[in-house]
């Protein structure tokens, strides 16, 4: 589906609640499915990626009910999972594909899983390699690197694994396998990745030890069902934080946003660029910090983004690139090679689409360099290339473009933010007083 956006917004004003956090929604279903008892998940993200996780666990024999405001998972413990008679389809979701492999590694049956054409290109060896070391029998194209994958699990043993990448998907897959393996499983990362699995395991009564960059679990644990309230997704809020900073005459309040420090790199970047941003009402829900964010139109200066902060904002780099087009000076984004293995190669897609809008941006081996400020053109056709975050970044860009823009494949946005355009229109229609 193509989306036609009319260009420059006179202002963006109002309060919104972004949908539930994608990473936390996936984990609530997965842990609920292997726990004993009934888990109720509120503010679950009804985006396509998380619905893929529900669909896969239903095929593994777990009963999951969806109502308008919550999801109920009837867990019968890890041993309650059943060999699926159908192929599991993980859609566009890297988190579903990689984390479910961790669950299946320890499950004593055979499963085949596959995803869409983007998933078919994404590297799975980073997960299938360590899961094989634990004893899972996995095969697939390129020696188990690419989907479709076949996995026969069971009889796994704990390992000590030093991950070459800071990836929560890798860490979580190994920990999920470790929960039902013999002995201790330890994962060490080069930098800290998002720690939602560790926090949620505690909410389900699990035992997990975090020692700086090392996380460990003992095998043979039983998880107990609980209630989870999913905070708003800071990665979705990021689009409206940037919109509030770069669109003239704007003030946007975002309520109940997750503020886990492994995810708040975007807030640090906005602050270092001089954005007028305030945080209030901070509290903790299910071991996750949550708060309200208010941002208004700001004078921005360039910054440098790299090093250990990359994993704290990896999904926000497309929208940070747009932000940098409006900042005074040269913004350098480095150490972000991981962008190449996301839903699209996000170094290529961000640079090519922002260039079409007239941005001064160039790709580097591990990131991009953006010189600002530049005024962005209209009457241009751009594409999401099927990548939800590229689609949302371009839609926010349209609010400062000098004319209409057409976004091809804009429906990809429903992967993580089905109400995105409704929220954008709501902010555009609130008039200044
Ligand atoms: C995610 C981890 C990150 C992130 C992705 C969601 C998760 O990927 O980019 O959108 O829920 O664990 P990596 O683990 O590959 O860094």
Fill in the keyword field for this structure.
single chain; 433 residues; alpha/beta; UDP-n-acetylglucosamine1-carboxyvinyl-transferase, Chain; four-stranded mixed β-sheet; 13 helices; globular; binds shikimate-3-phosphate
Number of domains: 2
Largest sheet: 4 strands, mixed
Termini Cα gap:
36 Å
Quickly name the level 1 CATH class of the largest domain: Alpha Beta
Q: Please state the overall shape, judged from the principal axes of the Cα atoms.
A: globular
Do you know the CATH topology of the largest domain? UDP-n-acetylglucosamine1-carboxyvinyl-transferase, Chain
Uncertain spans, ≥5 residues at pLDDT below 50? none
| Mean pLDDT figure | 97
Overall description:
- The chain is of the alpha/beta class and 433 residues long.
- It folds into 2 domains: 3-20 and 232-429, Alpha-beta prism (UDP-n-acetylglucosamine1-carboxyvinyl-transferase, Chain), CATH 3.65.10.10; 22-229, UDP-n-acetylglucosamine1-carboxyvinyl-transferase, Chain.
- Helices cover 30% and strands 28% of the residues.
- The chain contains 13 helices and 25 strands.
- Strand 6 (88-89), helix 3 (94-105) and strand 7 (110-114) form a beta-alpha-beta unit.
- The radius of gyration is 21 Å and the shape is globular.
- Residues 23, 95, 167-169, 172, 193-194, 314-315, 338 line the site of shikimate-3-phosphate.
- Shikimate-3-phosphate is lined by residues 23, 95, 167-169, 172, 193-194, 314-315, 338.
